[in-house]
């Protein structure tokens, strides 16, 4: 009856894309004999679980490996929160390049920039060439650098572009199945640039009766469901609010459009930049939510950034000094800022 209502266009929230999942849930039958974990009787199983080595995708940045206990686990949704121009795409392009460098497969889905623009940023990163100098390379030199990357790294990196606001997990699922069938490509990690400009496969967006909180939360839940379905970690990003854009101590409350997104994510961190950090060639990272480790450990830390080569790197330990007390706010005419001390290169 619910499906009939959706087909007739009488449901204010759901679209026809929700029918497969709706029917699948209605027709599912379970024969699971497991009635739960017996705390006393299953102690040995629990001990073995504690000592299992979890399969993760490590970062090439030490601090991120520390806060995640070795990298991103499968079946997870991980979100970078930042203002416009701070470095959301830069961060994801760098991590995508590092996944390729580990000999693993990465799928980069973009709805903000063209496929060639994403590839250009990854070229600058892996070739160690300033992005504005890529056009000055001769064809022979450029081809040689691409071949060197191909010979050096055994993984694959595919970039797929979709129109802004039109693609949802139904499209991503079809793409993954098509890549497996036609190219024998199975990603080890998926990047979605970025979550807020995806569509929901279940709910109507603009013109519907749904609010932004429910709509963005639905998108986050669907994308996390995709990570579980295909057994991969997914990295995406979201914008800060207008007040968060001028705030040097960003919090979860600065997430734009929907607080339901942080509720769904497994890892969420803010990327923060200001004139002082830019002058030092650094980005401040602040943990906002962490299901892998205690978020109070390395709550704030800095990483080096070379924007010309779209590259992030570890900085010396001395650069982290003073960050434990960072974040004390000062009100100015331009909004709330924070005092940072102990920054050194």
Short description:
The protein has 345 residues and is α/β, with parallel strands linked by helices. It has twelve helices and 13 strands. Helix 5 (88-101) packs across helix 6 (115-127).
Q: What would the keywords be for this entry?
A:
345 residues, 12 helices, Rossmann fold, alpha/beta, nine-stranded mixed β-sheet, two-stranded antiparallel ribbon
Helices and strands, with pairings:
Layout lengths: L1 H6 L11 H9 L15 H8 L5 E2 L4 H6 L4 E2 L2 E7 L5 H14 L4 E5 L4 H13 L11 H14 L4 E5 L7 H15 L5 E5 L18 H19 L2 E7 L2 H4 L14 H5 L2 E6 L2 H6 L1 E9 L9 E7 L4 E3 L15 E4 L2 E4 L7
Parallel strand pairs: 3-7, 3-8, 4-5, 4-6, 6-7
Antiparallel strand pairs: 1-2, 8-9, 9-10, 10-11, 12-13
Uncertain runs with pLDDT below 50, 5 residues or more? 325-345
CATH fold title = Rossmann fold
Number of strands: 13
Radius of gyration: 22 Å
Q: Structurally, how many domains make up the residues?
A: 1
Q: In the CATH classification, which architecture applies?
A: 3-Layer(aba) Sandwich
Q: Supply the number of helical segments.
A: 12
The pLDDT mean sits at 85
Question: What can be said about the biggest beta sheet?
Answer: 9 strands, mixed
In order across it, which strands form the biggest sheet?
Answer: 5-4-6-7-3-8-9-10-11
């Amino acid at each position: 009856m619910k499906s009939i209502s959706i087909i007739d266009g009488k449901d204010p929230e759901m679209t026809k894309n929700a029918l497969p999942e709706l029917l699948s849930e209605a027709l599912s039958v379970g024969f699971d004999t497991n009635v739960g974990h017996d705390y006393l009787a299953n102690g040995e199983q629990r001990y073995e679980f504690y000592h299992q080595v979890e399969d993760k995708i490590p970062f090439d940045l030490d601090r991120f490996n520390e806060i995640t206990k070795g990298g991103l686990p499968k079946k997870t949704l991980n979100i970078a929160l930042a203002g416009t121009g701070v470095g959301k795409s830069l961060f994801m392009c760098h991590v995508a390049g590092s996944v390729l460098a580990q000999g693993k497969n990465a799928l980069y889905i973009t709805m903000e920039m063209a496929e060639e623009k994403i590839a250009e940023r990854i070229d600058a990163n892996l070739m160690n060439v300033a992005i504005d100098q890529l056009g000055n390379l001769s064809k022979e030199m450029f081809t040689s650098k691409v071949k060197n990357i191909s010979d050096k790294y055994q993984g694959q990196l595919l970039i797929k572009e979709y129109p802004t606001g039109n693609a949802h997990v139904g499209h991503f699922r079809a793409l993954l199945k098509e890549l497996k069938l036609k190219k024998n490509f199975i990603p080890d990690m998926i990047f979605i640039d970025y979550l807020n400009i995806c569509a929901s496969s279940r709910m109507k967006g603009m013109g519907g009766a749904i609010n932004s909180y429910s709509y963005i939360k639905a998108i986050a839940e669907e994308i996390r469901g995709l990570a579980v379905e295909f057994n991969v970690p997914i990295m995406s990003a979201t914008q800060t609010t207008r007040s968060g854009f001028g705030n040097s101590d960003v919090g979860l409350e600065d997430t734009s459009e929907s607080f339901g997104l942080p509720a769904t994510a497994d890892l969420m961190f803010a990327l923060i930049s200001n004139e002082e950090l830019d002058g030092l060639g650094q980005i401040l990272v602040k943990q906002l939510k962490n299901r892998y480790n205690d978020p109070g450990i390395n709550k704030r830390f800095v990483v080096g950034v070379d924007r010309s080569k779209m590259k992030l790197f570890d900085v010396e330990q001395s650069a982290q000094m003073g960050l434990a007390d960072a974040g004390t706010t000062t009100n100015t005419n331009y909004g709330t800022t924070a005092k940072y001390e102990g920054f050194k290169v």
